[in-house]
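Listing S7. Sequence submitted for prediction.
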Amino acid sequence: FAQRRMDATQRKIFVPSVREIVSDKLTTIGLEYWADDQKKAFDSSVVEGLYDEIYRNEASFNLARIMLLELSHCLESFLWPNFSVTASTAHLMLMIVLVNEKFRENIATPWAFCHTDRVKFATFFDRVLRMRGTETLSMAEETHLIVFLVNCYQSLEDALVREECLRLVSLPLWLDINRTRADKEVLNLSSRVQARWRKIKRTQASLNGSTQREFFPALIRFFFSIVESSSIHTEPAMIQYCERFLELMKDLLGQLPTRRFFHLVLQHMHFVPRCLVAPFYRASEARLFKQLVNELRFYQNFEVHNYSGEPFTEADMTAMHGDRVKQFQLAAYKTLAPNLRSFALANIGAVDTREALQKHLSPLSVDDLVRLCSALYLIDQRTPSSQFSKALLTEVIITTYEKRTSQLSAINHMPIYPNEDILWDENLVPSINYTGEGCLALPKLNLQFLTFHDYLLRNYHLFRLEATYEIRQDIEDVVKRSNPRRSVTGETSFAGWSRMALPIKSFRITHAAKPNIGESKPAVVDAELVYSLSSRTGKIREEWEDLKLHDVLYLLTIRAPISAQEELNTQLPFKERYGVVYCRGCEVRHVLDEKEDELHAHNLPRHKAKHIGAGDLRTVKVRMDAAQYQLDENSKTKGKEDPYTTFNLVLRRKPKENNFKPVLETIRELMNTSCLVPEWLHDVFLGYGDPSAPFSKKKQDEIDFCDTFLSIEHLQASFPDHTIDTPSNTKLFPPFKVQFADDKNIKVMPYIPPNRGPYPFDMPKHNLIPFTPVQVSAIKSAMNEGLTMVVGPPGTGKTDVAVQIISNWYHNYPGERTLLVTHSNQALNQLFEKIMCLDIDERHLLRLGHGHSFLETDKDFGKYGRVDYMLGRRMQHLATVGRLADCVGAKGDFSYSCEAAAHLFALHLLPSWRKFKATSLEQKSAAYIAQHFPFAPFFADVALFRGADFSDDFEIARGCFRHIKKIFTELKECRPLELLRTGHERANYLLIKQASIVAMTCTHAALKRGELVELGLKYDNILMEESAQILEIETFIPMLLQNQNTTEGCRLKRVVLIGDHNQLPPVVKNVAFQRYAHMDQSLFARFVRLGVPTISLDSQGRMRPSLASLWNWRYPNLGNLPAVLTDVSYSQANAGFLHEYQLINVEDYQGKGETEPSPYFYQNLGEAEYIAAVYMYMRLLGYPAYKISIITSYNGQKHLLRDVLQQRCGGHPLFGMPAKISTVDRFQGQQNDYILLSLVRTKAVGHIRDVRRLVVAMSRARKGLYVFCRKALFLSCYESTQTFVPLGARPDTLQLILNETNPTTRLVSDTEVSAFTVQNLQHMQQLVAAHTNTAQSAYHRALMPQLPEQNPLSDAPAGPPPAKKAKTDPTEQSAESAVNSPATMTTPMATTTTTTTTMSETSTTSTTSTTTTVDSESGGGKRKRS
């Protein structure tokens, strides 16, 4: 039965082909009634027929038919426009089912169809609620109704939905509750709510029978009738209904607006106790049901005030528990003194456990229990006692008064590493092919959270389970490759091998320390394992030798169920199929060779590690998970096996994929501390209160914009709606300070920055970007204290805005520190490189993490690089100090230390300057300044004074002294480096005390949070780029990298989030965690859903306006910057192509469209070959390879493209490889001049239907975009209509301009040109073959005078040049003139029969090589390909 349920929730949905869709009956009906302009009139019988198509019996709906109906836009175009109050049940159910399908497919705007008519939606919602009382629904229909409600309560940000949903969980629900208890609860509410309650009681008669009051109680009673039914064990539909209902109840308790009044209803109806005593709860089929009940029970007793939302501490919960038990004892003494005397007089700790309560309550009769529960207000006295069983009444009392298990304590005692039970629990860690039909025992990330503890708890569980899923994938891959088999002696041997695993020679626990005070688990558990590297050589052996401190290993016990001669039973689950018995994680402490010498690879950077261990045997000392060890010890006392004597396989993972442990420890540490976000951000962070409250919470009346504006005209254009007051009779040059009198009037005040010194390097760097008015608005908002959210569509200058904000913070608030966080190292380095170009002293910049080595600069901005830089500056300045001492005639050696230099400044230089300054101000003579300036000899290498004006010369003198003062300021900062002796101490000092701008990735922040807090890191501002791509928890952690001041509170003043929620969300590999748990929701996207004000940048400057039109419909009012309208490079055509963008229809190649060698590993050989041919054509025309990127929507196609291009172009001197071959998801944040895009699918649109992914795919190209896909399929996609309609308006066969080379002078607007049409892939291959033959001949002739005896194709260079280093591709250097010459561009008629045959044979070879599954590690080290 469990296997049938697993198959039902994980089966892969049948996806029809385009031909099947076109010929389907539903498509025909759609064309007749809603797809065509000449559609037929509405007919209710058609609705009945459609419902019959998707629902033919009472067991389940046909998901494939529902998908097809939703794809045809039946809801938006047919059902909703024709809905009325008299609509049939089939009409209602069809709408419910299609709304659920939109949520299942994760459509971005599932409620968009109903926003046109608020009244109609209210009518529709009311009809849905009343349907249960007027119609008899099947279990499948009832389940869809529950799923609809789940989706509604997950969409409370939509005002239309929120208004209808909150009515059902409002105060009138309490009319059916024990009146005494309800009145007591009302006393905890505000006076306004108390007055409302009194009014409701007075008008109770008018509410009798109302949907608002009766819906949920009636629904709960129906649930009880199902869960207590004797037939539920054999009815999967009933089980699924109950699971979905528990999901709904959990969601209602998990959000404060729905929890506030509803929690008391569940308690009154004894929801959890009735679930616990139901016979089904103990059934073998109820595993998921039991998990959901336990989760619901946890949220019913959550540590939060149900009305105010204030969190309870552990001390509060203990005190409240004690008060409840005291009241229980008092009521027991008054009501049943003879029977419960010992209970009433016992201390609380002796009677508050489940076992103790059961012991005291078991002798009581049903009548006694009824009296007791009535006295405790647990049941309504009006309810007959015959309706209660003894088991239920006992469970009600126990559930109410037993001591609650602390969730925090449970988390602290939970193993960090997943074991075999969690790894293969499909309810917790679903397989990749989760369809969204079933319910899961997972927490959800939605709009609102009860408390910060709730927020962290949900993220902890999801992050842990996502890591578990990835670990399970790696374990399954390794075990399959290792091929365990049972020998004749019954032992397990491994017939295969894997580079990521080795057999274990021996393993033993070496030390288990005594538990710490107050804990039951050992303080530490150490062990050692031994394995041999004799079978591993080369790169694989180096990887094993490179194990370092804190790397995580996994120890497996495999007991093969079959011998070498037997076949695997593929019907069994993986764990039983391969005999996986145990899995335990551990952390590397030391690695020893055969001579017991420690390998020091972990003490060196990974790329410098030396692998010099003696012999083949390696002993690895590891630290086990103490919590898991204690659980195993407890199991041993019950007679179970000791797993630590059974391990026979050790597994490692790639370091970048194996950093989950420190992140989980960081989250757990946060749950154990009282750290909070700033008070002004608290409510909105949890999803409550006024969403605009944190937006610029403290506005400044005057802002120094520094170098933001290029001129006064630029400033005036930046505030088009303001009246600008400028000083009269003053030349207005930047920089400017701006005073904001009110929303319409501003006053501009130019000022002259102080002279910094006479040398060119003293001159400040200036911003050169003419920011748009919206960009200036974002910069202005960021200067105010509070939260600023900037939505940056592709190419709108998000990075430039971020850099200017940081620069303005640096100059306006010199005493404050800024934290810069991004998702990726690439984005962080781009930001950091731009910051380096602004007027920010580089000694105040610090880049944490390993990514600093990839900065395009010779300077090292890492911690130790900054130490070297400061020590170098110290030496330079100390040498300068000697010259200054001579200049003022000071005697002594002042250049040997920073302290001595400080004495020179204080005793000689500063008095000399003060004396000169005072006399100069008295004399007011330029001649005096030139003759008596005390530091003139020091500046002898530069002309100082002009002698024309005293004020100018005096300012120059002041600038010179500022130059000198800066030298001693830097020496003062270097002084601690003289006292700190180690590089580690010096690096930490610079991080904590000197760096004003600290940059890191969100991953580094999560990994190093404990270390940074311990060091005492402080910061006032935080800016997050790519914040829409960062997981919720990874956005939260960087805000908590400092301890709060107990008196001042949180130091954080400004938070700027820059991102784009209309592009791709954070990457979550498990589909179930994306769709069901919403783990891919970013904090940025959640704030947008909550209605937090945003500033949307409105002008793109990346690409041609025509290319931007393919996606800018997603962004209202998005325009173009002047550069893309006036720059000649954007108006010139793409050489050899008629169009700057085009959709090329690719039909089946060799009888196949999309293929799927393994689940969800989609490939399309025809598109891959076509793209390879077009790429080769572009290279022959002179396009540099580094300006061409190839992207695709699926990982399988990416691998296929790499294989095909490597075979066609990798070693060829005329082609080389393109700049990048990547997936759309991985290419987000990057761009190139020319993009070749493969959409792969030919049966269903696939996940490019997600508009966010579509926007990313279409916005990567600057000058040319060529889309290869099945035209008919993608034109039929409703969500992407506005992109594919203009693409489809152009011919779907490739249009070329022959005999044209790159670059061309032809303009995009030149339409009077003769185009050559490429009919299909084979035609394109012939064309390319012809050009290649001609170009090869020219290339050979060009090389012959230099290398008369060398074949030009033998040792040719390959691959694209490094980006930003050369304008000419190295693959073109020797034959560039020959390839780019128009004479070489012959017509396709020049191709020969031999050439065509060669291309055909090559294509066949590629097909064979790319459609054969190759086992990479068991075969020869190659990666798996389709």
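Caption to Listing S7: primary sequence and predicted structure tokens for the chain studied. The longest strand covers residues 580-592. Residues 1-11, 601-611, 1347-1426 have pLDDT under 50 and may be disordered.
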